[in-house]
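Could someone model zinc ion with this protein?
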Amino acid sequence: MWDLLVRGGRVVDPASGLDAVADVAVRDGRIAEVRPHERGAGLAAEDAAEVADAAGRLVTPGLVDLHTHVWHGATYWGLDPDPIAWRTGVTTWVDAGSAGAYSMDGLRRFAAELARVRVHALINVSALGLVAETGEHHNLDNLDVDTAVAVAARHGGFVRGVKARIDARTVGRHGLEPLRRAAALARRLDRPLMVHVGYGPPTIADIAPLLAEGDILTHCASGCPTDLVADGRLTAPARRALDAGAVFDLGHGSGALAFDVLEAELAEGVRPVASSDLHARSVHGPAFDLPTVMAKLVAAGAGLPEAIAAATVRPARALGLDAGTLAPGAAADIAVFDAEEGRFPVVDVHGSVRESPVRLTNTATYVDGRLLPPCAAEPPPPWIPLSGSQRRAEEDRVGATRSAVRRLESPEDFDEPFPRAGS
Ligand SMILES: [Zn+2]
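Reply:
Sure, complex below.
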């Protein structure tokens, strides 16, 4: 007997090499069996307590977003993941440096443990984390490696790596010293280092020599660094980082996706992780959510299965997470989408437009085999500027949420008696 059977969808699970019409059975919060239809009949509906018909839909592992900011109510960038997860299929959220040593305990207790989704963290090398818009490295007293090691040790597997924003504004006059300390911290924890790149200095040529195999270069398709891609080719330092085993991660955010850079990287053989860098300033656009970022990756030339790999198995492996697959025994984190085919315009942060041949609209999201309930987001905090169209979209969303509540008041609503307690 199964608790849930997701039947007849196109199941794409790159970790298992599966792309076929199949049934997915769940028992005790775990994937119990996945049976492709070509191997005979599907799984029997009678054997399941609940059956979800996914015919004509796309079924993937719950998506894994490698770069997000979920320390809401405590930082400049933070947002609550649950109001976004249920409508996007993202079941694993990696918070990228919102908390440093001083607030890791708070991120865990007041954001991660209260969320319905899975949350992991990268510890910021600055003990201040991302409480403010920038400047966390301006006072090096806050970048104490011993303190960060001690805090990370208390949090075991919750802390999956280290984060450092390395751009001119964030490092101030300290140049590469914040990066050196972040690298030292990552080596001592034996975990990957995620480096945010932007307007330098430091440049990619400065940063790349400090990256080790498995470290993550986030904002990899940003138009901001001047020496990431040149004349449609990876620059020598970017090529060196790639060849040394650095993971290239999109980290779309509010300013880090340029189609010309991404297209050059794909042509050069980069297979990036698709992450949203979702935060209070990117959730209303231009990133919106991870399925939108995946559609942009497809628009830039990657196939849909490749985009799914970039948002499931690849980010999971980058941090050694037990997520991103529908293999039997895995946690039953499942995303179901309407994968509409057509020509859908998508835009990068510089206003360049491409057409995606697919648009992903999430129709159901399960964590541990349980359907995430719809849930409305809080209004954006006062320091987040919204454009006129972003404000109107926000008002529409609030209005639609209110009008979703229907009273039972027409005569047909009373054609049978309401159930009474005890009857
Ligand atoms: Zn970020």
